[in-house]
């Protein structure tokens, strides 16, 4: 527990130290542009979080029998990466990139996909009935 507290207390100082050393090496302009770029990237990722979750669920349903644990956790990883990109600093950006890497995890068995049978089909006939409209009331 103390180690976690120590890491949480040292983390901001490490981020500031890396930003200062990068600014000393490359200049403050490129480092500032990097921080702004990653913040915009994080905002964009957080805005598209719902789309990522929807695409993940769609691909999981299409995979069939085997589903990876890491693919199920992709929306959470994407959300955490977006938050880490919002935090100014290089260390948080590295953790965000690591979260976005496509790891293959152990597969979970999923039951067989249901297929349509003859019992699912309802046969019948229909016809369309439109009410006649007055030609003078139409918008042309």
Automatic annotation (TrEMBL):
This protein's GO CC annotations: membrane
Keywords: Membrane, Transmembrane, Transmembrane helix
Coiled-coil ranges (or none): none
TM ranges: 32-57, 78-103
Span list, region Disordered: 121-140
Top-level taxon: Bacteria
UniProt keyword Membrane present: yes
Short name of any one Pfam family annotated for the protein: FxsA
Compositionally biased residues, Basic and acidic residues: 124-140
Protein name according to UniProt: Membrane protein FxsA
Species for this entry: Paludibacterium denitrificans
